[in-house]
Design goal:
By secondary structure, the protein is mainly alpha-helical. The protein has helices at about 1-5, 20-30, 35-55, 65-75, 85-110, 125-145, 150-160, 165-170, 175-200.
């Protein structure tokens, strides 16, 4: 299959071995019971990822469990062709980003109206400023993707996915030094863009 052919395997450890990999493939191939078994293995990890995406601060408007459940609903009926656990968690980080951004936009529209202009602030002045931070970051990541897709994905997996350098290297089929170079570039680019946003 084309999806499987595109997978990169740099090494196999106890964590990348079955049952997670086998369950992912079984679920993809139509075994619905594999999804429930998979959740038993990955639920705690996914919840930690959700908490990390929320900055560790759950609110009445979005708790980690709510975010996780919305993310799982997005993939439940159409599982992608994952290679292994690293690819699964990388994909879930992108799904969580989508859920978080959609929720932030809805919250901001509810407060200011659909045509509201979002300003950026580095200071944490409460929930509304944090929403603006998130939406600005999402916009900048999309802009970076148009300039350097590989650097944008490394930054996405680092910031939203919370993946370690070794895991990112495995998912993307790159060396750790290459990941480090992409991170240095993408962080420097992001920092420069944020300064421009603040000066605008």
């Amino acid at each position: 299959m084309t999806g499987r052919a595109a997978c990169h395997h740099t090494w196999v450890t106890e964590e990348t071995s079955p049952p997670i990999t086998e369950l992912l493939h079984a679920w993809r191939d139509g075994d619905r019971s594999a999804f429930a078994q998979l959740l038993e293995h990955v639920h705690s990890k996914l919840r930690r990822m959700a908490l990390a995406r929320l900055g560790g601060d759950e609110t009445p408007s979005l708790a980690a469990d709510d975010m996780l459940h919305e993310s799982l609903l997005k993939i439940m009926n159409t599982p992608p062709d994952w290679c292994d656990r690293e690819h699964f968690f990388a994909h879930m980080s992108m799904v969580m980003r989508s859920v978080l951004v959609d929720h932030a936009r809805a919250r901001l529209c509810g407060k200011r109206g659909a045509g509201a202009h979002v300003t950026y602030t580095l200071s944490e002045l409460g929930e509304e400023s944090q929403v603006a931070d998130l939406l600005t970051l999402d916009s900048l990541l999309r802009r970076l993707d148009g300039i350097d897709p590989r650097a944008a994905r490394v930054l996405q997996l680092t910031y939203f996915g919370g993946l370690k350098r070794d895991d990112i290297a495995s998912v993307m089929g790159l060396s750790v030094p290459t990941i480090d170079r992409e991170l240095r570039f993408s962080r420097a680019w992001l920092s420069a863009q944020l300064q421009r946003e603040l000066e605008a």
